[in-house]
Design a protein that fits this description.
Layout (H helix, E strand, L loop, with lengths): L3 H4 L3 E5 L1 H5 L18 H4 L2 H6 L1 H16 L5 H12 L3 E5 L5 H5 L4 E3 L2 E8 L5 E3 L19 E5 L8 H13 L2 E5 L11 H7 L3 E6 L11 E4 L2 H16 L2
Parallel strand pairs: 1-2, 1-7, 2-3, 7-8, 8-9
Antiparallel strand pairs: 4-5, 4-6
Helix pairs in contact: 6-10, 8-9
Bound molecules: ligand BV8 and zinc ion.
The site of zinc ion has 8 residues, from loops.
Length: 242
């Protein structure tokens, strides 16, 4: 008689901006771009911040104000239930919107940081707040007076090695990888599901379009994640007798 843990699959999940699209959070590369005439990739860089910290902060403050009105959707809720019922479950997100935590996910690996946390560019000061709008812009450190920056990973910046190593370990040992709402273009995050495949696991992709990952995914559930994930999870739970 196997113990429950052995019977249940080890699951790793990677989410991207698409899982929050159903909540009204604009995606990074979706239609209509994200903000004014700017390509977010041009603003989410240390160079842009050095050149024009006020403009970059207007971009992040605008996103904070947008996200503040958004609620988690059924796709976020499925991942909360999976965390409760599966003993070996790891949620990894590229999103900085905080919606997984708001939905009730307790352990989330934030690969690209958190838009609600500000950190000082010169000292160890950091603060998480839901203040919108921020005033003044750009915000300055109350401890040393230097500029504060969003605690996110910009293009050209390294991910936190401890966070990324934990994510790699989870995908390497996973029997099942769910990849939800990501264009699978941004590295090193995009490499994670391939680790599951290389180790003999299964990849299920949930997206409204094909991505470079679709060629190696075992199945692509085409459609909005908030519509495709709940029925899949209902079937999977029944199959696992959970
Ligand atoms: C690094 C935080 C090295 C900020 C983000 C060439 C030139 C320069 C750099 C590179 C290069 N080639 C490779 C690189 C490296 C670069 C990279 O990968 N660039 C890509 C674009 C080519 N990566 C980096 O720079 C990383 N760092 O490599 O450092 C290093 C090492 C050591 C020491 C020093 C340096 C850092 C990457 C992190 C960048 N920061 N975000 C912020 O958010 O403001 S990444 C940004 O893109 C967002 O976080 C987002 O999460 C991420 C990925 O995008 P997605 O989440 O996939 O969102 P997207 O809009 O693209 O797609 C949405 C998807 O959802 C679509 O597929 C759509 O079809 C789908 N969808 C829509 N609606 C729904 C849906 N799906 C389901 N349901 C729906 N309803
Ligand atoms: Zn400071």
């Amino acid at each position: 008689m196997s113990t429950p843990d052995e019977r249940l699959p080890r699951v790793a999940v990677l989410t991207g901006a698409g899982i929050s699209a159903g909540s009204g959070v604009p995606t990074f590369r979706g239609a209509g771009g994200l903000w004014r005439q700017y390509d977010p990739q041009e603003l989410a860089t240390p160079q842009a911040f050095a050149r024009d910290p006020k403009l970059v902060w207007e971009f992040y403050d605008w996103r904070r104000q947008r996200i503040a009105t958004c609620k988690p959707n059924p796709a976020h809720q499925v991942l909360v239930e999976m965390e409760c019922l599966l003993p070996d479950f790891t949620l990894v997100t590229q999103n900085v919107d905080g919606l997984h935590a708001t939905a009730g996910s307790r352990r989330v690996l934030l690969l690209h940081g958190d838009i609600w946390t500000l950190r000082c560019t010169a000292c160890s000061f950091r603060e998480t707040n839901r203040q919108t709008p921020l005033n003044p812009l750009p915000p300055r450190c109350p401890a040393c007076g230097h500029l504060l920056r969003p605690d996110v990973v910009w293009f050209g910046e390294a991910l936190d090695p401890a966070v990324f190593d934990a994510a790699r370990r989870a995908f390497r040992r996973a029997d099942l990888a769910l990849v939800i709402g990501t264009s699978a273009l941004v590295y090193p995050a995009a490499e994670l599901p391939y680790l599951t495949k290389q180790a003999g696991g299964t990849i299920l992709e949930f997206n409204t379009e094909c991505t470079p990952l679709s060629a190696v995914a075992d199945r692509l559930f085409l459609g909005p994640g908030e519509e495709t994930l709940p029925p899949w999870w209902a079937d999977f739970r029944r199959h696992l007798a959970l």
